[in-house]
Write a structure and sequence with these properties.
single chain, mainly alpha, 3 domains, two-stranded antiparallel sheet, elongated
């Protein structure tokens, strides 16, 4: 009776703990989904690449790169290009500059790039580990096969050592039959005449 009460109490506590954990998980999911929806939109292409600068560029460097690229890509400066292509190139440069000019968006995008690099690094580490494991398994298999071949070869050599060639029946009797006329060993006889087995 006392054991069943303890067991029931333990099950109640376990149930309450599981319920608490599932509630916490649901709350965390809703919090992070709300957080994700409040983040700034990600640009379609890397604004740093569009402006031809690296991620560590400061505001002054971003402005300078924008001015230079906008001057070069302006549709009026490129009459030899299709007007829609020139306008599209200029629009991409302006959007990249606008995105990076917003400190919150820039910080968010830098964080995104950092996480992407970490994910890529982890993916490469996993792939490298898989390659190492496959290579190790291949080497182990080769070692095992080599040992098996060596063992078969050693057995064949040992068997060859036990092959005895006799030229007369008296030689056979001397080696195979003991003093009482009983066979000492099991043996197989093969009679060869003119190099043909009989």
């Amino acid at each position: 009776m006392r054991i069943s009460r303890r067991r029931n109490t333990a099950f109640r506590w376990l149930f309450l703990f599981a319920l608490l954990c599932s509630t916490q998980t649901a709350l965390a999911r809703s919090y992070y989904s709300n957080f994700a929806s409040s983040r700034p939109d990600m640009p379609k292409e890397n604004p740093y690449k569009v402006l031809g600068i690296n991620q560590h560029a400061n505001d002054e460097m971003i402005k300078k790169a924008y001015r230079n690229m906008a001057r070069e890509a302006h549709p009026d400066k490129n009459p030899h290009l299709d007007p829609s292509d020139a306008a599209e190139k200029f629009r991409r440069i302006a959007e990249a500059f606008e995105y990076l000019s917003n400190a919150n968006q820039k910080r968010h995008y830098d964080s995104h790039l950092h996480k992407e690099r970490q994910r890529e690094r982890k993916r490469q580490q996993r792939e490298e580990e898989i390659r190492r494991n496959q290579e190790q398994a291949r080497r182990q298999k080769e070692r095992k096969e080599r040992k098996q071949r060596e063992l078969r070869l050693a057995k064949a050599r040992l068997a060859q050592k036990h092959i005895v060639q006799y030229k007369t029946l008296e030689e056979v009797k001397g080696d195979v039959v003991d003093q009482n006329g009983l066979y000492k060993h099991h043996f197989l006889c093969l009679f060869v005449s003119n190099k043909k087995a009989e």
